[in-house]
Specification:
- It is a single chain.
- This protein is of the alpha/beta class.
- Helix content is about 40%, strand content about 20%.
- It folds into two domains: about 180 residues, D-Maltodextrin-Binding Protein, domain 2, CATH 3.40.190.150; about 100 residues, D-Maltodextrin-Binding Protein, domain 2.
- Helix 6 links the parallel strand 6 and strand 7.
- The protein is globular and about 60 Å long.
Amino acid sequence: MKRRGLLGAFALPGLAHAEGRPARILVGFAPGGLTDILARVLAPVIGARLGQTVVVENRPGAAGIIAAEAVAKAPPDGQLLLMGHPTALAIAPALGQTLPFDATRAFAPVSLLAIQPHLLIVKGNAPWSDAPTLLADGRARPGEISYGSSGVASVQHVAGEALGAAGRARFTHVPYRGSAPTMVDIAGGQLGFAIDGVGVAAPMIEAGQLKAIGASHTRRVARFPEVPTLIEQGLTGFAIGSWFGLVAPAGLPAAQIAVLQVACVEALGSADGQRALRNASAEGIGSSPAAFAEWIAAETARYRALAAAAGVRPEG
């Protein structure tokens, strides 16, 4: 017997127009990063549970704000979802950035999916062997060394400014539309460094095009155990990484959120999900909606303090 889709299963009035059209998960960054990878792991699992096609749509720009706005303003019918990321859900609100939506009211959290550590990444033949040598160069040549991020007020932006503040060095921020193009330009010598996710950097590190000179985490990451943490290198408490979670437009009925949350847990436990987590040295979570809401609130407070200490401003 054919399973009914999301709309049929919940028989919501006024939503018949969506029948036959695929549901979408928006990703606010270019393909290649863990945000994109997790969305592509999740899409077929949600589709199987709902009995309808679910596709991933990359809509990069403004550090994920463009994609978040589309979901924030979408009808709460389950047809448009967001692979959430700290930038739109926590950092931009923490900085007081002017947004085209109210981040505290616009979304219905579904599940915190994963937490990924970041690495301090430089070109494979860069002269810096560790964080102290990079910071010393940054002090000697203020503003001459650039670092890349996935956009103004992104995790990578906050991390880069926090690194400079911690080492009393000044670097130049260059925003990109995602992590993958950032890695390409570091390898090509157009950028000095980035503090970014294990998953997107690992293949180029293993190929020798990039090298990791520090782990932005409380412990060394599983995929690169030889790389000391930034804490080990004297940067007390420096542990800034990424997290990923599914959100829907506010107002989506609790029964539909519950179905999506079950699909999140199932996707993380799948072979593809486990492979994605392992490749990124990421921790799979699969939280409840309530726990994810609490996480977002706590992260907003944490980033407010981090940004204030590093002098990060919403305009870049």
